[in-house]
Design goal:
By secondary structure, this protein is α/β, with parallel strands linked by helices. It contains 9 helices and 13 strands.
Length: about 280
């Protein structure tokens, strides 16, 4: 039994305890954090008790947010409900030696994918120009700029104007504003400005990245690396492999797969994965 469920034992029946959350996501730092928890409909009346247990587990948590919806809309954001703590949910998240300002109620951000950002940052080489599509708050861009000090520049395209403000702010507070170019707009409209100018393209939006794969290839200087994120069923990469093959065949491009990485469980039946491949 997880610690959270241990704390809830005295307040929930055995049947309720079975449906209680096992864990929660923390965004923040040692001074102020926000906890994000999924609460099933059957435990709606117990949400305050669950929030109390979360705060008891982590004294740095100042607000507990309950997920109300899945990610949706053009900006890929969720709806949340504050079930305990402060109304102000803008925080500074710390990971791998850099800081990220974010308000999870306004823009999408996953603290759980910090290790994934670090894996990507370690692959970037000196003097590369990197295209970051669907940049969010610029977390991947900051990770790269802090890890690879000799990166040429990182072009971060984001359609959400509020997220774009966070990109610029996060670049500033981490002193990498000279490396990150924040571009507001739709990838399909903005990417053509950077055709044939990049050494590497990162596509961290799993639901729609396949629709922009041609743009990613065109951004490369004849050859280069693409980090393509998508969803797969369990361990079956075949559908993702097929998407890459079809696009490269259509564009008459030779390629080779460098790596396949499971990133995070997206649903009970699906995984978010990353396929790294090189255009030759």
């Amino acid at each position: 039994m997880t610690k959270l469920k241990e704390l809830l034992k005295k307040d929930l029946t055995e049947q309720e305890l079975e449906k209680a959350p096992n864990s929660f996501e923390i965004i923040g730092n040692k001074e102020k954090s926000v906890a994000i928890v999924e609460i099933p409909e059957e435990l709606e009346s117990k949400k305050e008790l669950i929030a109390k247990a979360v705060i008891q587990m982590d004294k740095n948590v100042k607000t507990v947010l309950k997920k109300v919806s899945e990610r949706k809309g053009e900006f890929r954001t969720r709806e949340f409900e504050i079930i305990a703590g402060q109304e102000d949910t803008e925080i500074i998240h710390r990971e791998y030696g850099y800081l990220l300002k974010v308000d999870p109620q306004i823009v999408y951000f996953s603290a759980k994918e910090g290790s994934e950002r670090e894996r990507i940052a370690k692959q970037v080489k000196e003097n590369e120009t990197v295209m970051l599509m669907f940049a969010g708050i610029g977390a991947v861009a900051v990770a790269i700029a802090k890890k690879q000090l000799s990166v040429q520049k990182i072009i971060a395209i984001e359609i959400n104007p509020q997220a774009l403000e966070y990109i610029e702010e996060n670049a500033r507070i981490n002193r990498v504003a000279d490396k990150i170019i924040a571009v507001e707009g739709d990838v399909r409209k903005e990417a053509p400005r950077f055709y044939n100018k990049c050494d590497r393209v990162i596509m961290p939006l799993p639901l729609e990245a396949s629709e922009f794969l041609e743009e990613a290839v065109k951004c490369l200087q004849n050859k280069g690396v693409i980090h393509f994120y998508t969803l797969i069923d369990k361990d079956d990469f075949s559908a993702a492999d097929k998407i890459i093959k079809e696009v490269c065949d259509k564009m008459n491009k030779k390629y080779r797969i460098l790596n396949k990485q499971k990133v995070a469980e997206y649903s009970p039946k699906q995984w978010k994965v990353r396929i790294d491949f090189e255009i030759l």
